[in-house]
Structure formats: structure tokens, C-alpha cells
């Protein structure tokens, strides 16, 4: 079973359009899941071989230079990353995505790459050229969804606030991201939100904050 196929069953049941990737620093090599290939407009991984050049070709022109700089930074620094940017699918459709990742190591505990997820934002706002942040667009359905877990509103709102701060998301997008992790880890939203909130005090507000939060988001379910 390939790396891409190994998560096929996990991702196929998600209501979110998400895909996984692996990037190997020294080899400058990318591996995409079939879902990520489809997000870019391909039929699957059998139709495309991802490279750094191809990854950049799919970035929106206004975001390409920033993402190129980010890729060079993570390759040279052997670190993880997160990003909000737009990709351009094969058919020309522009899609806003959030990317969260964490590093992985070899048997000698040496960081050899970074892996993570592309999440197509369910309520995409336009990224502005000036700030590359999404415009504030709230969806009325958020209130209805949160009412289902009203007794746990405080933890959920606090977790959403942290997501909004770190990833520059709208209120609705933050809830979508939290819901995705709940589905991905099979942990209830309220429990996942509480686990995230319990660990917020351990994160220092430094230039490395975003990288640290990526790690928390992708591993919070282990605290349950």
C-alpha cells in the first residue's frame, strides 16, 4: 500500500474536501494523496507526479512568490509550516485553501520532511493582495451548528478564537476546521475543543507560534 493509499479510507468519509501531502527535504520530493490530486483538478495520483515546480504552478499568481519563499524556508530550515493561499485547479478554478503540517522524522529522530493537509475552505473569502488574509464572511449556519453543543459553548468558542488568530480565519471557517479535525480523529467537537484549550497556556507567543499551533491541532486528539 502506498503512502497516498494509506489514508484513503480515512479521508473518503469526510464531508470536507481535504487531501494529504508529504514533502521530503533533502530529496525535494512530494507525495500527494489521491484526494489532494483531485483538489488540484486531476483524476488522481496516477495522472500527476507532484514536484515543487508543479506545486508552484498551481498557486494563484498573487500568492506564488510568497509560497515559493515559504517552501525554500521549510526545506532549508527543516521545519513545518502553515499557510493560507489560493490554488488554481486544472480547469482554472481558483480555490482558497488552508494548509497545516507537522514535521516527521526517520529512525534516528532526524527531521526528514513535513506532512500535513490541504483543507478547501467551505466559506471561502477572497485573499486580499495587501494582507493575504481572508475577508470576514460569516455564515448564518454557524449559530445553528453551535446550538447543538450549547452546553460546551465556552470551550468551542475559545478554540475557535485560537484558530481564527493563528490561521487568520473567519468565525465560520474556524468552526469548519475544528469540525474537520473532529471527523478526522473521531473525537467529539466539544472534547477536541477542550483538549486544545487545555494546552493553549503551554504555547508561547513567539514567531514560532504558528508552527507550534499546527502541532497542537494535528495531535490534540491524542490527549483524550
UniProtKB/TrEMBL annotation:
<protein>
    <submittedName>
        <fullName>ANTAR domain-containing protein</fullName>
    </submittedName>
</protein>
<feature type="domain" description="ANTAR">
    <location>
        <begin position="136"/>
        <end position="197"/>
    </location>
</feature>
<dbReference type="InterPro" id="IPR000014">
    <property type="entry name" value="PAS"/>
</dbReference>
<dbReference type="InterPro" id="IPR035965">
    <property type="entry name" value="PAS-like_dom_sf"/>
</dbReference>
<dbReference type="InterPro" id="IPR005561">
    <property type="entry name" value="ANTAR"/>
</dbReference>
<dbReference type="Pfam" id="PF03861">
    <property type="entry name" value="ANTAR"/>
</dbReference>
<dbReference type="InterPro" id="IPR036388">
    <property type="entry name" value="WH-like_DNA-bd_sf"/>
</dbReference>
<dbReference type="Pfam" id="PF08447">
    <property type="entry name" value="PAS_3"/>
</dbReference>
<dbReference type="GO" id="GO:0003723">
    <property type="term" value="F:RNA binding"/>
</dbReference>
<dbReference type="InterPro" id="IPR013655">
    <property type="entry name" value="PAS_fold_3"/>
</dbReference>
Amino acid at each position: 500500500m502506498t503512502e497516498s493509499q494509506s489514508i484513503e479510507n480515512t479521508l473518503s468519509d469526510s464531508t470536507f474536501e481535504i487531501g494529504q501531502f508529504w514533502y521530503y527535504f533533502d530529496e525535494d520530493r512530494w507525495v500527494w494523496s489521491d484526494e489532494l490530486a483531485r483538489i488540484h483538478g486531476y483524476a488522481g495520483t496516477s495522472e500527476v507526479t507532484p514536484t515543487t515546480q508543479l506545486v508552484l504552478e498551481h498557486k494563484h499568481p498573487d500568492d506564488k512568490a510568497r509560497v515559493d519563499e515559504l517552501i525554500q524556508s521549510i526545506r532549508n530550515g527543516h521545519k513545518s509550516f502553515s499557510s493560507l493561499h489560493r490554488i488554481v485547479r486544472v480547469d482554472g478554478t481558483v480555490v482558497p485553501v488552508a494548509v497545516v503540517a507537522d514535521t516527521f522524522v526517520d529512525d534516528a529522530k532526524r527531521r526528514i520532511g513535513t506532512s500535513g493537509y490541504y483543507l478547501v475552505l467551505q466559506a471561502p473569502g477572497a485573499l486580499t493582495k495587501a494582507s493575504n488574509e481572508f475577508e470576514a464572511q460569516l455564515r448564518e449556519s454557524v449559530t445553528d451548528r453551535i446550538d447543538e453543543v450549547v452546553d460546551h459553548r465556552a470551550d468551542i468558542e475559545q478554540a475557535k478564537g485560537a484558530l481564527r488568530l493563528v490561521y487568520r480565519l473567519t468565525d465560520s471557517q474556524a468552526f469548519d476546521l475544528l469540525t474537520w479535525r473532529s471527523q478526522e480523529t473521531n473525537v467529539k467537537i466539544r472534547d477536541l475543543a477542550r483538549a486544545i484549550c487545555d494546552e493553549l497556556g503551554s504555547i508561547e507567543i513567539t514567531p514560532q507560534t504558528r508552527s507550534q499551533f499546527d502541532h497542537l491541532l494535528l495531535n490534540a486528539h491524542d490527549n483524550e
